[in-house]
Amino acid sequence: MQAVDLSRVPVVDNHCHGIKREQGFEDLASWRRAFTESADPGMVRDHIATTALYRRLIKNLAIIVGCEPDEGAVFAARTGRDGRELAGELLRAANVDTFLVDTGFPSPEEVLPVPEMGELGACRAEPMLRLEVLMEELLQKHDSLADAKEALSAALDDVRGQGHIALKSIAAYRTGLDVREWPEQEAERSFRTYQRDAETGSARLVHKPLLDTLLHVAFVQAARQEVPVQFHVGYGDADTDLLLGNPLHLRRVLQRSDYRGMPVVLLHECYPYTRQGGYLAAVYENVYLDLSYGIPLLGYGEMLSFTRQALGVAPSSKLMYSSDGIGVPELHWISALDGRHVLGEALGEMVSHKELNLPEAESVGESILRANATRLYKLQADRRSPKD
Ligand SMILES: [Zn+2]
How far is the CA of 101 from the centre of ligand 1 (A)? Predict the structure, then answer.
């Protein structure tokens, strides 16, 4: 079996996050923390360094920073470098066409501004709007549910015109993906509970009838404007209930024929629910499956496995590359390297099974790494990418 060579294809990273302005980590433990979704101190201390991803990272990063492939040496070498210079080198080595950045986390004060990410990577970088952050802001300013709904609808009246390429929801982290339609009184009651909670401390929107109701306001706008909505699905930190992060819970939303104009992007290959996500992309015309090679933090074999699962059930025109890189430039970088290798290997298998010929396999690889996202997010409509 010969792998398809995708090494020269620039990627549209259709879902990632900002890179911290401060790249000087005080100790090894604080750097290791960038490569786990666990908040348990014992994980960072005793276990993270033994994951497949971390070991692969050390070996590859050693080549870039020019030292022995040893954790301590790599950490010293990368931390000895100027943070912006290191980020620039890694982002350029990733060969990125466009970054689509979720600006909802980490907070904008902590990370490099979106245009600066583009400058460092010699590529384009565009922001996406995290719905729950906008909702929490608006709920602070309005005294009735009707007003809050109206304000949300107005704020989302022209998503692209206001500079956002797409919307993103983290409902899976808050109340689950089974987004429902609630009777008016239930939503009102939930709104009042939210107001009380916000007065006494937390303005975090974890009130299901309220969040679901506001999400429907956003979906109406997204469907009308044909703006993609990304959903966090599956693998995340311990704050997410993985049982409720199964994409099959989205059925009520996906069944709505009036939402067909809203492209739904299921993030992180829905890991470990990749087959379920691939099935949804095979059945609903407006569902797309993101293939993220940075986070979840996986070994090569597992990345190959989810890539096979996705290619095996979903149309390849529904698959799109991302890194989900966050905080450190290492994730945005290694994801691009791994994504090209893994996808090239999975496509090579399809060639040997006579599902594709070589030119078709190269074309499918280019589509998944770049062209599908360029089309879906209308990246060419307003400005041409610098790499075209
Ligand atoms: Zn993310």
Answer: 9
pLDDT confidence of residue 385: 47
Give residues with Cβ within 8 angstroms of 351, minimum separation 6. 1, 2, 4, 357, 358, 361
- Starting at the edge strand found earlier in the chain, the sheet holding 96-102 runs 11-16, 96-102, 124-130, 167-169, 229-231, 264-266, 287-292, 319-322
Distance 185 CA to ligand 1 centre (A): 33
Distance 40 CA to ligand 1 centre (A): 20
Residue carrying the six token digits 């809050």: 148
Mean pLDDT of successive 10-residue segments in the chain (388 residues)?
Answer: 96 98 92 95 95 98 97 96 96 98 96 98 98 97 97 98 97 96 98 96 94 98 98 90 93 98 98 98 98 98 98 98 98 98 98 98 98 97 50
- Using alpha carbons, select from 111, 150, 156, 153 the residue that is nearest to residue 130: 156
Centroid of ligand 1 to alpha carbon of 13 (angstroms): 11
Instruction: Give which of 228, 310, 227 is closest to 264, Cα–Cα.
Output: 228
Contact indicator for 158, 227 with CB cutoff of 8 Å: no
Residue 148 sits at φ, ψ, to 5 deg, of -65, -40
Q: How remote is the CA of residue 104 from the centroid of ligand 1, in Å?
A: 9
Helix (H, G, I), strand (E, B) or coil at 12: strand
Q: Which residues contact 356 (CB under 8 A, 6 or more apart)?
A: 347, 350, 364
Instruction: With H, G, I as helix, E, B as strand and everything else as coil, classify residue 167.
Output: strand
Evaluate whether 266 touches 231 at the Cβ level (below 8 Å): yes
pLDDT of residue 381: 63
For residue 96, the surrounding DSSP H or E stretch is strand 96-102
CA distances from 226 to 74, 229, 376 (A): 45, 9, 9
